UniProtKB/TrEMBL annotation:
<dbReference type="InterPro" id="IPR009027">
    <property type="entry name" value="Ribosomal_bL9/RNase_H1_N"/>
</dbReference>
<dbReference type="InterPro" id="IPR011320">
    <property type="entry name" value="RNase_H1_N"/>
</dbReference>
<dbReference type="InterPro" id="IPR022892">
    <property type="entry name" value="RNaseHI"/>
</dbReference>
<keyword id="KW-0460">Magnesium</keyword>
<dbReference type="InterPro" id="IPR037056">
    <property type="entry name" value="RNase_H1_N_sf"/>
</dbReference>
<dbReference type="InterPro" id="IPR017067">
    <property type="entry name" value="RNase_H1_euk"/>
</dbReference>
<comment type="subunit">
    <text>Monomer.</text>
</comment>
<dbReference type="Pfam" id="PF01693">
    <property type="entry name" value="Cauli_VI"/>
</dbReference>
<keyword id="KW-0479">Metal-binding</keyword>
<dbReference type="InterPro" id="IPR012337">
    <property type="entry name" value="RNaseH-like_sf"/>
</dbReference>
<dbReference type="InterPro" id="IPR002156">
    <property type="entry name" value="RNaseH_domain"/>
</dbReference>
<keyword id="KW-0255">Endonuclease</keyword>
<dbReference type="Pfam" id="PF00075">
    <property type="entry name" value="RNase_H"/>
</dbReference>
<keyword id="KW-0540">Nuclease</keyword>
<keyword id="KW-0378">Hydrolase</keyword>
<comment type="similarity">
    <text>Belongs to the RNase H family.</text>
</comment>
<dbReference type="InterPro" id="IPR036397">
    <property type="entry name" value="RNaseH_sf"/>
</dbReference>
Length: 255
């Protein structure tokens, strides 16, 4: 049998593998796994898109664990995967048009496996910012209950505005009596309780920014849930009760 090289774009450790058994370790039961075989290493390298580590059968079990990026920069899909935490919550808000019909969504992963989807908080007169804040708020509420169960949690949000509101700007706004120079603080009714909630859990969670619509599976699924909330005009925040078929869900209308 001719030798093959296996490219893993999305799996436990992305890279190029020289045998199927090693490749399978990276993609088996991994939600959203993306991989393909190639007849030569050169073709595999070209398909990966950049210089990729190549793992043999023996080295695959020693594949390095990449350290997560915790800077203010946006995380890539690979860096998201490498964040070491049990629970990963992806948030998104959608509004069509903006301002207009708004909704929020979450995608929850347990040990990098999709476990739950949530959608709702429909507002016929919302904005993209209120929808994003609502989604992040629901993630914080969920994180609180998970922390009580001794689970580790990271939140991934594509709204810099929402993240900065509760992690940076609110610190100054609170010191100034919830006022800011130059005008009113928009969405203060949401931001104040969110900031209090964040203060209670900030030492036990991670919050990272990711770019939207760049192929990060959890972000894409949260996006579909936010638009599903708009399409169904779902007022309560409800768990998605259909099968967690990722391809089917990704085929839903995007925001």
């Amino acid at each position: 049998m001719a030798k093959k090289f296996y490219v893993v774009w999305q799996g436990r450790t992305p890279g190029i593998y020289t045998d199927w058994a090693s490749c399978k370790q990276q993609v088996d039961k991994f939600a959203g796994a993306k991989y393909k075989s190639f007849p030569t290493q050169a073709e595999a390298q070209a398909a990966f898109g950049n210089k990729a580590p190549t793992y043999s059968r023996t080295s695959a079990t020693k594949a390095p664990v990449k350290k997560p990026t915790t800077s203010k920069g946006s995380l890539t899909a690979e860096q998201v995967l490498a964040v070491e935490t049990q629970i990963k919550i992806f948030t998104d808000g959608g509004c069509d048009p903006n301002p207009g019909k708004a909704g929020s969504g979450l995608a929850v992963y347990n040990n990098n496996q999709l476990s739950e989807l949530w959608f709702g908080l429909y507002n016929p007169n919302g904005t993209n910012n209120t929808a994003e804040l609502n989604a992040l708020n629901q993630a914080l509420i969920m994180a609180q209950s998970m922390i009580e169960k001794n689970q580790t949690v990271a939140i991934f949000c594509d709204s810099r505005y929402s993240i900065q509101c509760i992690t940076q700007w609110a610190v100054t706004w609170q010191k100034n009596g919830w006022k800011k120079a130059g005008g009113e603080i928009k969405n203060l009714d949401l931001i104040q309780p969110m900031f209090e909630r964040y203060q209670a859990v900030k030492s036990k969670i991670q919050i990272h920014h990711v770019n939207g619509h760049v192929g990060i599976e959890g972000n894409e699924l949260a996006d579909r849930m936010s638009i599903l909330a708009v399409d169904k005009q779902e007022m309560p925040f409800s768990q998605y009760d259909q099968p967690l078929d990722i391809e089917t869900i990704l085929a839903l209308r995007a925001g």
